[in-house]
Amino acid sequence: MDINHLQELIELEDTYWWHIAKRELVTSLLVENVLPPARVVEGGIGSARNLEEFQKLGYQVAGLDLLEDAVLQARSRGIDDAHVHDLAENWPFDSGTVDAVVLLDVLEHIEHPVQVLRHAGRVLSASGRIVFTVPAYPWLYGDWDEQLGHFRRYTKQLVRSQVEAAGLTIEWLSFWNAFSLPAAAAVRSYQRCFPRQRAAEFPRVNPLVNRMLQRMAAMERWCLHRAPVPFGLSLVGVLAK
Predict the structure, then answer these.
(1) If you ran DSSP here, which 8-state letter would residue 204 be given?
(2) Pairwise CA distance, residues 202 & 216, whole Å
(3) What is the predicted pLDDT for the residue at 178?
(4) Among residues 238, 241, 80, 85, which one has the least CA distance to residue 172?
(5) What whole-number distance in Å separates Cα of residue 51 and Cα of residue 61?
(6) b/e string for 140-155 if b means 16 or more Cβ within 10 A?
(7) Could you give the 3-state DSSP secondary structure of residue 223?
(8) What pLDDT, in 10s, does the model give residues 80-128?
């Protein structure tokens, strides 16, 4: 992750609707599958806001990130078990000692994601789970993805093939963030027609729109816990050994 994008995360994760929605969705999936005080490891911790939330809920947390500034940020939030580490290398935990692994918008940044999934699977306990998110639809791939260092955007089929290659199984898989897909598609189309260099940042919205989008995300989350959403800007899933 670029240091400028990390700073943007630090500034926005407590207030911006997208970060709040993703954190609430993933936290609900984590609690649904693995109860505290389970041991949770997050790969690619960013601003460490998610780890802080997990720790408040009573989980034993640890984090790995390639960026030293991200690890320092985690420790400033009281996450002592945070380390600079390349996720493509063997993870520094004993086999079967982790109850849950969280990979939020991480796999698209990695050239060989199957290797990362294998490392995550190795440290998982027999009943452990991996909760992950990835951006959806390769046809949406654009400058924003390139600036963020994405190798790909995902289809359900690609998720399934990588999970199977890693020796894992899909417990649950769905699209999410369906309500913002039309706007994202329109923006990508406009950018292709009128290309210019832009900073990779989240589009700002006024407080009223921000609250409205949070409510829409909450409604979608309610639906997701009852049936998968058929389309959306991202994919979210739960994996098992």
Answers:
(1) P
(2) 18
(3) 96
(4) 238
(5) 7
(6) bbbbbbeebebebbbe
(7) helix
(8) 999 999 999 999 999 999 999 999 999 999 999 999 999 999 999 999 9
pLDDT above 70 as % of the chain: 94
Q: How far apart are CA 161 and CA 151, in angstroms?
A: 16
CA distances from 35 to 20, 117, 218, 232 (A): 21, 22, 22, 28
- Residue 58, token pair as written in the block: 């009573």
What dihedral do alpha carbons 190, 191, 195, 201 form, nearest 10°?
140
Phi first, then psi: give them for residue 228, nearest 5 degrees. Answer: -60, 150
Nearest alpha carbon to residue 38 among 129, 136, 151, 168:
129
- If DSSP codes are grouped into helix, strand and coil, which group holds residue 102? strand
Domains of the chain, each with CATH number or no CATH = 3-240 (3.40.50.150)
Nearest Cα neighbor of 50 from 67, 25, 33 is: 25
Tell me the C-alpha to C-alpha distance, in Å, between residue 182 and each of 69, 178, 187, 226. 35, 8, 9, 23
Helices (H), the chain: 3-12, 17-33, 49-56, 68-76, 113-123, 143-147, 156-165, 181-193, 207-224
Do 224 and 174 touch, CB atoms closer than 8 A?
yes
